[in-house]
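Q: What would this chain look like folded?
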Amino acid sequence: MIEVEIRPRLQFRELLTTTNRWAVIVAHRRAGKTVACIQKLIKEALECDKQRPRFAYIAPLLKQAKTVAWDYLKAYALGIPGTSANESELRIDFPNGAQIRLFGTDNPDSLRGIYLDGVVLDEAADMSPRLFDEIIRPALADRKGWAVWIGTPKGQNAFYDLWVESENKPGWLRLMLRASETGLVDEEELRDAQQSMTFEQYRQEFECSFMAAIMGAYYGREMEAARNEKRIVPHLYDKHLPVSTAWDLGAGDDTVIWFFQRSGVDLRLVDLYGNNGYGLDHYAGILHGKPYRYEKHLLPHDVEQRVLSGGEIARTRRETLESLGIPVTVVAKWPVEEGINAVRRLMPRMWFDSETCHHGIRAIEQYRRKYDEVRKVFQEHPLHDWTSDYADALRMLAVGVDEPRAKSGTRRKSEVKLKWVV
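A: My prediction, written as structure tokens:
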């Protein structure tokens, strides 16, 4: 018999001992959540009595998973006799046949087709809300595996929804760890953090507030206005109006399609579809399966690119789509910042269907600038994560609708550059 002693912090003991299948943990910065997650995975891996147990730690980026968790995992696991580490696959193998492996949601295909007995989703606020439903949940099904979502708030996104929905729900553990209550960060350090951070930042990072605005968000004010003006409502589709689509074509990322209608000066975003790993025939089939009368389909300039196939020049994606019955309107290539400004100009006229466009609304609210941790400033370009594909497709919509302004010469390049500083 091998005896392994695991000493979790008091605040995380309930997580390690719970018999609930599902858990959502909201924890302040420097609470030790990554170590607690690693401890739970090791404990469950050693105690699992199923054949070839499989467990996963998932972060928004694989690089992030390696940086944050790999050293901890090796430090705790490799002291167990008979345990080995596979550096190339970021995998730990235990003597009972169990494995723990690190993954990133930036490569969702690496998670397809596997089975899992348990999974930790760290920094869950930065993950696509579709990930669990479409990939992780099926992987847990036949083994009746468990899942833990853990992270720090970043606005009222899917992680917030999960926190709210889990309250008093059978089979769920729900913990919130605020710095003012845990005692894990000393008071002097907290006072110093309060002086160097904005009120909203401190409330979000150390007091687990879901109400703080998302830092660096491009469309935070515009989406807040849309909610206040009640332009995010269900059942927007009008069967008497034609529907147009705006696309972002994904390669390794999602292909996203917004469906919208013009109603006077207003734009109604009535539907949304996103997926990855499929050919253009799949998306054409989705469009043809909708009960819509189409007006136009707005696609980015790279729809004109040709790809090599079997040593011969293949048709462009535009030619492929048009052969599938989807006539293409190619949107002019604008600089990203100008496209973002086009979205902002149209936002006061946009209405969103709260049911069919739910994931897209969350993505647009979270779409933000990349943050430079060294210089403590927001960079001039967007952070590329799961929200980018939804935002890029919305940009195609705005530029496609706004193009007459460009042709008439009224569009001007922004004369002021904003520098976002924390």
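The longest helix spans residues 387-407.
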